[in-house]
Amino acid sequence: MLKEMGRASQAVLLILCVLRTVKAFEMEIIPAERIVAQIGGTLILTCNTTGCASPSFSWRTQMDSPLGGKVSNHRTYSTLTMNPVGVVNSHSYLCTVICGERGKKEKSVKVELYSFPSDPIIDISPSLVAGEPAPVICKIPDVYPSHHLEVLLKKDGQVLHEEYFLYDDSTNTETKTVTYTFHPMAEDAGKEITCVARLPIADMDFEPKERTSSQKLNVNFGPQNTVITASPSNSPMAGDSLNLTCVTQSNPPAQIVWSKYLAEESIQHVIKNNVLFISRVHFNDSGRYICEAINLVTNKTEEATVNIVIQGAPVITKLSIEPSTTVQEGQNVSIQCSAESNPPPKIILRRKSDNADIGTSSARSIFLPSVMFQNGGDYECVAENKYGNSKSEITLNVKYGPKNTVITVFPAALKEGETVTMKCTSSGNPAPVISWKKKKATGEFEKISKNATITIQNLKSQDLGLYECEAYNQFGKEEKAVELYVQARLEEPDQMIPFIIAFSSVAAVAVPAAAILIYVARQAKINGSYSLVKALRLKV
C-alpha cells in the first residue's frame, strides 16, 4: 500500500514538472491600444503570440469596413501594413488569434489620423504701392481635421487678422485659404508678414502643432536721387579704364539704361546695367553719357548725365593712299592723314626722302596730279600734342615703263681678236626684262641673248655690226642700239692688203660720211649709248 502511494506521488510530481515547462498562450498588438498616424505616411500593426506553436490570425475593423492595408502572416505573428495611410484607416482594428484546443484571443488598437504636413504658403503681390490696397493670401496645405485649424496673420509681430474653422466638416485632407487686405505704407518696406497656422488637438500626441511662414513686404517707390559717379575721373587718359556707376533710390530696384549722345545729337543705346565699364578708353569714348532709371511698377523714370573727356597723346586714325598704294605713272594720287587726341594734335605729313613738312592741322592730304615715278617712296605722318606723338608710314609704289636705257661697251676702242663686253641697263617698275638683237645682212634683226650683258670673245669681222638692246615690262618698252666697228686691226701681212683695197674702194665716200659720223657720235653721247644707231637707221 505504501509502495502504491509512493508511485502515485511521483506521477503527480512528474505531471507538475511538465506543466511548468509549457508556456501559457498569450497575444499582444504592437503598438498597443491607441496610435496617432499622419495621413500619407506608413503604419504597421503587429499581432504577436507566445505559447502557441501554430496560431491562426485574422484582422478586421470593428465596423467591418475595408482594412485599407495588406496582411502578412508569419509563424508566430501577423502584420497589417497601411501604406500610405488614408482617411479610410481611421478605425479600431481587431486581431483574432486561434490556437487549436487552447482557444482564441482578441485584442484591438485604435488608429487616429491627422494631416499637417507643411508650413503655410504666403502669397503677396510683388507690386505693392504705398497707400494702395494689398491682398495677403495664406494657404495651409492638406489639413485634417480642419475644424481644429486656427490661422493668424501678423505684420511685424502685430496681429492683423485671425480666422478659425470650427464649423468645417471636411472628411478628407484639404488646403485651407485665408485672405486679408491691408494698406501698406512706405515705412512698411522691409517689414515681415507672418502666417501662423495651428492644429491644437488636445488628446493627440504629434509634433509640430504650429507652423509659420514669413515674407518681407516690398513697397514700391522711385526712382529718385539718381546720380552718376565716374572713376577715376571725368577726364581719364586714353588707355585707362573707366567706371561709370549709376545709383538711384527705387523699390523695386530700377532698371538702368545707359545712352550716349553722338556728335550729330542722336542717341546711341550702350548697355543695360548699373555699372558701365570700359577697360581701355579711346578718344571716341568722349561724350555725354545718360543714365535713365526706370521703375516699371510705378511707371516713373529719372535721368542723370555726365560729360566724359578722354585726354592723351595722338593716335593716327588714318593714313591712306587713294586710289591705291600701287599706281601707274600718270594717275592722280591723294595721300591722306588724320589723327585724334585731346588736346587736338598738330599733324605733319611729308615724304621721308624730302623731309619737307606739309600742313599742321588735324587732317592733311597731299594731292599728286599725274603722278611721276619720282613721287614714289615712303611717306610719313607725325601727330603730336603736349602728351606725346605718334608716327606712321605708308609706301607709294609707282609703276612705270622702261626709262633711261643705256648701253656701255668695254673696251671703248675695239681691235680684232679682243674680248668685248656690252651691258644694257634700264630703270622701270617692275624691273624691265633685257634682251639683245643683231642686225643681219638682210636688214632683219635676230635675237641673240636674253641677258643684260653679252660678251664676245676673239672679236672677228662677222661680229661687227649693229646691235640693239630692248628693255621691256608690262607698262612699255625702250630700245637703244650700238654699232661695233674696229679702230685697229692685227698687223698680219695677209690681212693688210685686203684692208687697203677695201679702204681705197670706199675713199670716194669717206669725206661726205665724216660729217655724218661726227653728228651721230654726238647724238650717241647724249643718249648714253656707244652707237650710231639713229643715223644708221636713217640709212637702212
From TrEMBL:
Gene name, Swiss-Prot/TrEMBL: VCAM1
SUPFAM superfamilies reported in the protein's UniProt record: Immunoglobulin
Membrane topology: Single-pass type I membrane protein
GO MF, one example: integrin binding
Subcellular location: Cell membrane
Protein name: Vascular cell adhesion molecule 1
Domain spans labelled Ig-like: 25-112, 223-307, 314-397, 402-483
Superkingdom of the source species: Eukaryota
Family matches, as CDD domains: Ig (cd00096)
Pfam families according to UniProt: C2-set, I-set, Ig_3
Main localization (coarse): membrane
Protein keywords: Cell adhesion, Cell membrane, Disulfide bond, Glycoprotein, Immunoglobulin domain, Membrane, Repeat, Signal, Transmembrane, Transmembrane helix
Entries under PANTHER family matching the protein: INTERCELLULAR ADHESION MOLECULE (PTHR13771), VASCULAR CELL ADHESION PROTEIN 1 (PTHR13771:SF14)
Cellular component GO terms held in the UniProt record: plasma membrane
Taxonomic source organism: Zonotrichia albicollis
Biological processes annotated in GO: cell-cell adhesion
Transmembrane stretches, start-end: 496-521
Signal peptide start-end: 1-24
InterPro entries according to UniProt: ICAM_VCAM (IPR047012), ICAM_VCAM_N (IPR003987), Ig-like_dom (IPR007110), Ig-like_dom_sf (IPR036179), Ig-like_fold (IPR013783), Ig_C2-set (IPR008424), Ig_I-set (IPR013098), Ig_sub (IPR003599)
